Amino acid sequence: MSQLAKIAAAMGGEVSGTRAMFPTPGHSKKDRGSWASLAPTAPDGVLIHSENGGDPLAIKDELRAKGVLPKWEPSRPRTALAPKRKPREPGRTYFEFQDADGVTVCRKVRIDKPDGSKTFQWQHPDGVGGWRADRGCDPLPYRLPDILAAALDVPVYIAEGEQKADKLASWGFVATSSKDLPGDLSVFADRTVIILPDNDKAGARIAGSLQSKLDSVAAECLIIELPGLAEGEDIMEWGGTADDLQALAHRGLTEPVETFELADLNLWAATKPTPKTFLMAPFIPREDVVIITGDGGTNKSTLALQISACAAAGRKFLGMDVIAGPALYITAEDDNRENHWRLAKIAEAIGTTLHALAGQLHIVSLRGRMNNELATFEHDGRMRSTPAYALLRATIVQTGAKLVTLDNVAHLFAGNENDRSQVTAFINLLYQLCGDLDVTVLLIAHRNKTGDSYSGSTAWLNAVRSQVLMERSDDADPDIRRMSLGKANYARAGEDIAFRWHDFALVRDKDLPADTAKEIAAVARTNADNAIFLACLAERNDQRRQVSEKPTAANYAPKQFEVMPQAKGLNRKRLADAMDRLYRIGAIERGFLYRDTGEGKDIHGLREATPGQPETSPETSRKQQPETSGNPQKTTGNTQPIYKYIPGASLGADAPSHEEEDDPDPFAVSSMSGGAG
Question: Where are the compositionally biased (Polar residues) regions (predicted)?
Answer without folding.
Answer: 626-641
